Backbone:
C-alpha cells in the first residue's frame, strides 16, 4: 500500500491536509474490502467510514481533535499530544 504524504513543515494547504487526515479511514476501508480486517457488518462500517471521509474532506470535522492533530502533523511535522507531559 502506498504511504501517505509526508509532513511538510510550514505547509498550509488545508485541503491537502484534509486528504492526509482522511488517509487512515481510506486504508481501513481498503482493508475491510480485501478481507484483511473483519467485522460483523462490513457494509455498514464501510458506509460509516465513507461518510467520515466525506466530512473530513468537507472540513466539517476540522474541530475534532484527532482530525486537527493529523492536519497539524501534515502541515508542521509536529504531533501534538492530547495531554501535555
Residues:
Amino acid at each position: 500500500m502506498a504511504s501517505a504524504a509526508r509532513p511538510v513543515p510550514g505547509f498550509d494547504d488545508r485541503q491537502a491536509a484534509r486528504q492526509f487526515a482522511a488517509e487512515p479511514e481510506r486504508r481501513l476501508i481498503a482493508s475491510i474490502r480485501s478481507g484483511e480486517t473483519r467485522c460483523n457488518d462490513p457494509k455498514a462500517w464501510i458506509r460509516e467510514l465513507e461518510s467520515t471521509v466525506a466530512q473530513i474532506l468537507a472540513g466539517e470535522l476540522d474541530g475534532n481533535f484527532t482530525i486537527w492533530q493529523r492536519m497539524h502533523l501534515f502541515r508542521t511535522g509536529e504531533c501534538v499530544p492530547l495531554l501535555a507531559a
In short: The chain has a mean pLDDT of 89. The first helix runs from residue 14 to 34.
